[in-house]
Amino acid sequence: MRHLRNIKATALAILIGIALTMNGNQARAAGTEILTVAGGCFWCVESDFESVPGVREVVSGFTGGSVANPTYKQVTRGGTGHYEAVQILFDPKMVSRETLLKKFFRSIDPTDAGGQFCDRGASYRSAIFVSDSAEKAKAEKVKAAAQSALGQKIVTPILGASKFYPADASHQDYYKGSKIVFTRFGPKKQSKAYKAYRQACGRDARVKQLWGKEAAFAGS
């Protein structure tokens, strides 16, 4: 049975990859751009940015590491070099890259180099990934403005893009799932478990403490 479950899980991961690739190709053909960022728990970043008008889809996954097709357990255990990250597919006619980056800085703790909120370790660090000099210039401009607005040193790096691996289906749209999951808060509907985790982790409280009225998604 375990072998059968492994086969099913592998097949599902392949299908997700194919579907996301097809969606990504169709999106790019329609003029959609991609912004890749890491802001701690990818469930939270996905939830935040899927609420932004002009964002068509957000995919949770991993990037920046040295292991091909890493699993969630591999990444969170450490040693692969990957960040928990998201790819934000957006329509630049409706929302600009700069606007999304501004929201990104104001939805994380960019002063923390050791993780984000209650999630500690290398895989939970924040970062922005860029594909070319134009994207890098935009990211650097927004970062400088955010640092000036915050009045503290921002340690979130701007890194060259590397291969992005989508996480398996159980991690996509986690924040609105209806499946019953067993957590430290007891058995809960997935969407409620997500809210309980987010509150317990202190994400919104810390963002509000840092950014005040400029906090982008705190309380979402």
Task: State the shape.
Answer: globular
Q: How can the largest sheet be summarized?
A: 6 strands, mixed
Q: Could you tell me the strand content as a percent range?
A: 15-25%
User: How much helix, percentage-wise, in residues?
Assistant: 40-55%
β-strand number: 10
Q: What can you tell me about this protein's structure?
A:
The protein has 220 residues and is of the alpha+beta class. It is 41% helix and 21% strand. The chain contains 7 helices and 10 strands. The protein has a 6-stranded mixed β-sheet, with helices on both faces. It has a two-stranded antiparallel sheet with strand order 4-5. Helix 5 links the parallel strand 6 and strand 7. The termini are far apart.
In short:
This protein is α+β, with helices and mostly antiparallel strands. The chain has helices spanning 2-29, 42-49, 72-77, 97-105, 133-150, 190-201, 203-211; strands at 33-39, 55-63, 83-90, 115-116, 119-120, 126-130, 158-160, 164-166, 180-183, 186-189.
SSE diagram, text form:
Elements: H1 2-29, E1 33-39, H2 42-49, E2 55-63, H3 72-77, E3 83-90, H4 97-105, E4 115-116, E5 119-120, E6 126-130, H5 133-150, E7 158-160, E8 164-166, E9 180-183, E10 186-189, H6 190-201, H7 203-211
Parallel strand pairs: 6-7
Antiparallel strand pairs: 1-3, 1-6, 2-3, 2-8, 4-5, 9-10
Tag the structure with descriptive keywords.
21% strand, two-stranded antiparallel ribbon, disordered N terminus, six-stranded mixed sheet, alpha+beta, 220 residues
